[in-house]
Amino acid sequence: MRKTLVIAVREYQAAVRTKTFVVSLVIMPLMGSAGLIAAWMFKDQVHVGDKRFAIVDRTGVLFHSIAAAADDYNETVVFESAGENGGARRRQIKPRFMVEAVDPRAEGDGLRAELSDRVRHGELAGFVEIQPGALDAADAPLVGERARQDSRTSGDSRTGGDSRTSGGMSESDAFAILRHGIDFPTAEAVGRPDDAAASGDGPIVYHSNNPMYFEFRVWLEGVVNSVARERRIRSTGLDPAVVGWVSRHVPVEHAPLYQRTADGALLPAQKYDHYVQVAARVTLCFLLFTVILIGAMPLTYSVLEEKMQRTAEVLLGSVTTFQFMMGKLLGMVGVSLTIVTIYLFVGFMSASYFGYGHMLPRDLVTWFVLYQACAILMFGSIYIAIGAACNDIKDAQNLMTPASVIACIPLFVIRPVMLEPNSTFSTLVSLFPPATPVLMLLRQGLPAPVPLWQPIVGLILVVATSLVCVGIAARIFRIGILMQGQGANLREIIYWAFAREGRMPSIPRRRSGDDTPTTWARPHSEPIAS
Amino acid sequence: MAVELRDVTKTFGRQVAVDRLSLRVPERSICGFIGPNGSGKTTTLRLIMRIYHPDGDCGSIRVLGAEGMGPACDQVGYLPEERGLYKRMKVVDLLRFYAELKGCTHVDRDVREWLERMGLTDAASKRVEALSKGMSQKVQFIATVIGRPALIILDEPFSGLDPVNAEIIRETILDLRRDGATIIFSTHDMSVAEVLCDFIVMIFRGKKVLDGTMEAIQREYGADTLRVRMHDPLIRLDDLPDVTRVTDLGGLKELRFAANGDPQRVLRALMARGDVQHFEITRPRLHDIFVRIARPAKTEGAHA
Fold it and tell me: pLDDT tens digits, residue range A379-434?
């Protein structure tokens, strides 16, 4: 144990007592939040030049509404609201929409080609084709079908309550009008122009050569639907107040659970705290994931360097391969614990200073440390074995890829786990040892309680897997570390890992005439004197 | 015995690196391993160190009286052939690290003493990567012996050293032996082996082909060597009677005569050809013995 600790201390000091370590401590969180910082820094970097759109309006009524809406948009939406700049000079934050009317009587294909060319040449940002029955055909079939479905399943669920509107119309009356009293025109009734049917397009199509710019399409959709809704309401003769009431949006808020204090009082649900707490816990999981990767992966390069520089054999004159490997692993556990201690300390101190100390996930810190130590042992032993089995960085990188994919499993499933933290899938995947540290900690950090047996079983499985990984890695390590020449292939590594000890002479060779010493060492016995 | 090997075999794939090797190295002796490249010297040393293990149930290895002795033992110091030190560590930190690994109790004192002894005091605070090859080799030598082990195994300790540093290492090895250590080293330098070793073991193609003191080995090969210096160094000597081989050492020629040959007859033939400045009947040098063993086989191997 003494020798293991001596090596661990050297590994720790070699990693920590460097400028690179200090610099990376600062850079790592910056890199982690680089996306947010970049978004904040470049939020004003928007092209605000006018965007010109051609409108081919075959309804004969929409263009004026669109032009009016564009004028309104250009006067209001494209500028910061007054509150954001304290009433000073308004700053433009979006491009203005300039719309031009195109004669809809022009021949269809020629017009389309000409407008497309104008878009390609940069004269236009896009053009819109509005077919004659666009306003009537928009969603008539859907409404008609829904009405028919509603009539088949009518009534029972609606008869329970019958609140009345301010105008004296009951809720059921309003539904009755919407369901049965009006004959909505269908698409079939309106009919479609031949050229639209030929092109296979919808009643209104926006053409552009920039699929990523969708702001105009969304805006136009809103304008057209607003006009269509107005026309339909007018055509039914309904009271706009009734329609407004019927279509009024009812918000549903999400809030955390109530809690009782020690004296029995009910604490109100603090929505803001709730989100901050969840964010802090998810951040903790990402910290764990990051530290696992940055803690374990360098071990491959460290071992590879010792092997290539022949330092390993010098050390093996003083220690056993197992002591050597465990020393490196424990050293790296120490390094990773140092990293998180610094981050957690700074995070807690900062949060406390700004009054958010009570939102920090103190209850998860113990689990965090346990998971982290085990994860470093588990992944570190795998990366060490890879380093021992290879003879150059290229080989090592090839073998590291599958190990890194396994380490990244939590990233692949983080969304379903966050949405349904206690589903069968989430439970099972969080009990899969390579994913347990991050996913179980994530589930423990979410508001839905995780049964205590699950983190305990997860930790036991992680410890067991770590021991198995360390054991297998030790077998690979003690053979590979002295092997020079060509690196081992996967078949040989598996053979080293699982072959019965003492059978090494029968190891399959890679090629005839290869006299690279590939040997098998039994476990070294403990020293008889020290 | 400090080291005892019995019928030890080690194979790598189909290649037999060490073939039923038996060996005994007495305590407080200096034993030199010689042999051509790839003959199995390093493998034998690694077997003694228990870095490698012999095949199956082939033979036994006892080190310092115990079979379980391995690299974890602080009483064994090992200097491998391939030098490897942590390049970014300071010399003093590196030696502290190895001293702690070997369980030294007075680490700082020992490190300081060894640095002074090897003339490296000024380099103590330098990084290893800043040292010359000779200096880093001396640092590695200190790392091997700093724990004052009872058995010191040195694989090619003199390779790459200039004569001054080689002399420092040689003297230190003798001092360590005087202090009670047993030293086993491998070398290609026959002159060093001749003067430094109490026992010499030659391994060739995995087998032991020589084992004994220098005197015993020379006695075994008999006094079949003549050293001759002629006034005219260009006189041809390979057709002299009873002479089977001539080795040109420059001014001096080494002649090997047949087992039933007569040195006096050779001398007479020499005098008939020119002025003889030096004539000596002597035993073969270790180098000559080495070549006698290795060359024919190499030739065979080349024809194979």
Answer: 888 888 888 777 778 878 887 888 888 888 888 888 888 888 888 898 999 899 88
Summarised one tens digit per residue, pLDDT across range B89-98 is 889 998 999 8
Instruction: Measure in Å the smallest separation between the Cα of A339 and chain B Cα atoms.
Output: 22
Q: What is the pLDDT of residue B260?
A: 80
What 3-state class would DSSP assign to B24? strand
Instruction: Name the minimum distance, in Å, from the CA of B254 to any CA of chain A.
Output: 37
Higher-pLDDT residue of B301, A53: A53
Would you call A517 and B50 a contact, using CB atoms and an 8 Å cutoff?
no
Domain that holds residue A241: 51-150+170-246
Mean pLDDT of the B147-171 span:
86
**Minimal CA separation from A336 to chain B, in Å:** 21
If asked whether residues A66 and A23 sit together in one domain, one would say no
Which residue in the set B68, B85, B103 is minimally distant from A530, CB to CB? Answer: B103
Please check whether residue A161 lies inside any domain of the structure.
Answer: no
pLDDT score of B155: 86
Q: What residues of chain B lie within 8 A of the CB of A520, using their CB?
A: 53
Q: A450-490, pLDDT tens digit by residue?
A: 888 988 998 899 888 888 887 787 777 777 776 666 666 77
Cα angle A390-A396-A401, degrees, rounded to a multiple of 5 = 140
Residues A381 and A435 in one domain: yes
The answer to whether residue A364 is domain-embedded is: yes
Domains defined for chain B, CATH in brackets:
3-75+149-218 (3.40.50.300), 85-143 (no CATH), 223-282 (3.30.70)
CB interface of B with A, residues 127-146, below 8 Å: 140, 143-144
Mean pLDDT, rounded, for A9-14? 87
Q: Please indicate, yes or no, if residue A46 is contained in any of the structural domains.
A: no
Is residue A247 exposed (0-12), middle (13-18) or buried (19+ Cβ within 10 Å)?
Answer: exposed
* Residues of chain B positioned with their CB less than 8 A from the CB of A522: 53
- The answer to whether residue A332 is domain-embedded is yes
Does B301 lie at the interface with A, CB-CB under 8 angstroms? no
Task: Please tell me if residue B79 touches chain A, with a CB cutoff of 8 Å.
Answer: yes
How confident is the model over B244-302, as pLDDT tens digits? 888 887 788 888 888 787 888 888 888 888 898 999 888 777 777 887 777 754 444 33
Describe the crossing of helices A321-353 and A2-16 by its angle, rounded to 10 degrees: 50
Q: Clarify whether residues A139 and A288 are in a common domain.
A: no
Question: Is residue A281 domain-shared with residue A330, that is, in the same domain?
Answer: yes
Residue A184 has pLDDT above 50, yes or no: no
* Kind of pairing between the strands at B60-63 and B3-12: antiparallel
B84–A482 CB contact, under 8 Å: no
Dist CA B174 CA B151 (whole Å): 13
Residues A197 and A305 occupy one common structural domain: no
Same domain, A190 and A87: yes
Give the number of domains in chain A: 2
| Interatomic CA distance for residues A319 and B78, integer angstroms | 11
Quick one: A56 and A131 in the same domain?
Answer: yes
Q: Which residue is closest to B64 within chain A, CA to CA?
A: A528
Report d(CA A47, CA A37) in Å as an integer. Answer: 20
DSSP H/E element including A326 = helix A321-353
Helices marked H in A390-520: 393-407, 409-419, 424-430, 436-445, 453-480, 490-498
Judge: A310–B72 Cβ closer than 8 Å, yes or no: no
Tell me whether residues A313 and B80 touch, CB distance under 8 A: yes
- Minimal C-alpha gap between B101 and chain A (Å): 5
Q: What is the pLDDT of residues A400-415, one digit of tens each?
A: 888 888 888 888 888 8
